[in-house]
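All the exercises in this workshop are built on plain-text protein records. A record pairs a protein's sequence with a compact description of its fold. Backbone structure tokens are a discrete shorthand for how the chain folds in space. Once this layout is familiar, the rest of the handout is easier to follow. As an example, a complete record with its sequence and its structure tokens follows.
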Amino acid sequence: MNGIGTVAVLGATGWIGRHILAAHARTGRPVVAVARAPAPHVQGFPFHSLDLAEAGPDEVARLLAEHDARVVVNAIDAANSRDGWHRPERELEKGNVRAVATLVEAVGSMARPPRLVHLGTLHEYGPVPDGTAVREDACPRPANAYARTKHAGSDTVLSAAREGRVDAAVLRVANVCGPYPSPASFPGVLLERFRRAVAGETVSLRVTGDRRDFVDVRDVARAVVLAGDRPDVSGHVLNIGGGRAVGIGEMVAWLRRTSGAAPERVREVLEPVAGMGGGWMLADIGAAERILGWRPVVTVRDSLHDMWYA
């Protein structure tokens, strides 16, 4: 692990942040949780309330220095509500661009700068041809406001790292699944609908023929731990994905079997669903394996099982 100080997890109350917090705690490293407001799962950890989109660099730098942060994880995402991915671009910019610029300036100003691990998204690449595993050297062509603002934030981090102003890496994360999903995510929607179906409601699910890369949230957290530890990651962008493109219909079928919902309670409606890109997504994860020694270990089927029973 990078140094002996604390790991500061920004966005610790979010879906991915809570797993990153837990993964670092399991290493025995001191951890501080940072978010706008506390949540039950951060009890037992030092907690600091901070809105990074509204804070100044000096305030952020003081907080990190007070906790002797040697690794800072930015798991903040402006799409933090049920309609988050479709919020106005100016709102997305606050959390995905402005807040990242503040964090980079804060980290770069510190007398003992920590390693910064920033979570980007595979959606930054935009649509790719069917059958293609997108690599890190692909030219990003984000297709919507969410992806554009996420890419701008990632680019801020990478530019600063390559100029030597910060020690930082970007992890571009595929679609996430697993325990305690965000209600705005596709797994979160699946979980909510099947819970209602098991309770006796009749629900509808829009299902497409899309195939997408899904990675378990605990595999993402493990990659973050490794990225904070390895000495040779600064300036790198690394794809973190599940290793295969999974059909949306497959995921629905797996959760249907896991939940035991009566067939007549879940109606599948075959129609297009608005996404962050095209109908295909798959990450080439070879660089993460070479540089971090990381590969996903949780299958999507097991991830959905654990999500249901969490």
Notes: The first strand starts at residue 6 and ends at 10. The CA atoms of residues 7 and 31 lie 5 Å apart. The first helix runs from residue 15 to 26.
